Amino acid sequence: MSADIIDGKAFAAKVRGQIAGQVARMKADHGITPGLAVILVGEDPASQVYVRNKGTQTLEVGMHSYEHKLPAETRAEDLYALIDRLNADPAVHGILCQFPVPAHLSETEIVARIDPSKDVDGLHVVNAGLLASGQRAMVSCTPLGCLMLLRDRLGSLSGLNAVVVGRSNLVGKPMAQLLLRDSCTVTIAHSRTKDIAAVCRGADILVAAVGRPRMIPGDWIKPGATVIDVGINRVDAPERGPGKTRLVGDVDFDSAKEVAGAITPVPGGVGPMTIACLLANTLTACCRIHGLPEPDGLTA
User: Fold this and answer.
1) Is it the case that residue 44 has pLDDT exceeding 90?
2) Which in 104, 146, 185, 266 has the greatest CB count within 10 A?
3) Could you tell me whether strands 64-70 and 94-97 are parallel, antiparallel, or unpaired per DSSP bridges?
4) Is the dihedral of CA 38, 44, 48, 54 positive or negative?
5) Is 149 helix (H, G, I), strand (E, B) or coil?
6) Which of 18, 22, 54, 252 is catalytic?
7) What letter would DSSP give residue 179?
8) Apex CA 42: angle with CA 37 and CA 93, to 5°?
């Protein structure tokens, strides 16, 4: 029996609708409009597309969008000065610097410069520490989106065995912390894990975030498990013609869907949730900064 396909695109549209409704109420009741500032350094084509999509969706939910496009040769001190101004700007509630940045700039130092209360990417060490210690934090967008999809699919996650394949600061580690907070029993698997196939087979929830195309085959998956595939890998697709490519996940979708109970596709699964959760985080940051109740259903 084939798995249910988790439609991340449709769910992200639902989340954006919720955000738009809450933004409209915030404007009407308090005269406050959440604002998201995005910084792009250089002219990376993929980053330009991401920033454009973020700006469009920010405006669509009724928020203010502030885009700052800087040349590739921008000095670190000039970038930090811009971040300092945005930190101090009361109209800006969320700040995001699009990565990657040119090699002479440090992503770690850029994140450290952002006010943790406006760190809507959830990457600041303060937010990582708050999340790890079970306190209120800004949560990385992709793991937050995965959590929303899991809660929608399964309801309570309490007591379920969860395996996260990947230990990155962006996805793997915060994903594990979020699952722990929802009372899962969590294992983080990685390149040094012994008999990783057996570890994966024990998972009621399997989150793949390792960045290796089709690494996880169907026979690594427990029958009926819920599989969340975070991977976005571009591979050759000769069946489409010379030089053509296609996107695939970290899970071998064709074999996995015959075993899993539910699975996210690539594309159309986790990906659309990332920008939706960026907007949710901006709304959450705005509420916290102004001492208002947090948006219902849009936080961890």
Assistant:
1) no
2) 146
3) unpaired
4) negative
5) helix
6) 54
7) H
8) 10
Report the relative pairing of strands 245-248 and 233-236 from DSSP bridges: antiparallel
Residue 148 CA to residue 110 CA, distance in Å, equals: 28
Catalytic residue among 22, 57, 118, 121: 121
Give the pLDDT score at 61. 98
Whole-angstrom distance, CA of residue 283 vs CA of residue 152: 20
Burial status of residue 217 (CB atoms within 10 A of its CB: 0-12, 13-18, 19 or more): middle
Cα gap 293→295, rounded to integer Å: 6
Q: Is 250 a catalytic residue?
A: no
Tell me the mean pLDDT in the region 1-13: 94
Question: CA 7, 223, 217: angle at the middle one, nearest 5?
Answer: 75
Mean of the per-residue pLDDT values of the chain: 96
Distance of CA 267 to the CA centre of its chain: 14
Confidence of residue 1 (pLDDT cuts 50, 70, 90): low
What does the alpha-carbon distance between residue 75 and residue 299 come to, in Å, rounded to a whole number?
35
User: How many other C-beta atoms lie within 10 A of the C-beta of residue 224?
Assistant: 12
Q: Which of 57, 98, 173, 250 is catalytic?
A: 98
Distance CA(19)–CA(4), nearest Å, equals 26
pLDDT digits (tens, 9 = 90+) for 222-261: 999 999 999 999 998 888 888 899 999 999 999 999 999 9
How far apart are the C-alpha atoms of 144 and 294, rounded to whole Å?
Answer: 15
Let me know if 62 is exposed, middle or buried by CB neighbors in 10 A (0-12, 13-18, 19+): middle
Q: Is 121 a catalytic residue?
A: yes
Q: How many CB atoms lie within 10 A of CB 112?
A: 16
Give bridge partners of residue 65 from the DSSP assignment. Answer: 36
CA distance 97 to 91: 17
pLDDT for 296 equals: 87
pLDDT, tens only, 114-145 = 999 999 999 999 999 999 999 999 999 999 99
Residue 82 to residue 68: CA distance in whole angstroms: 9
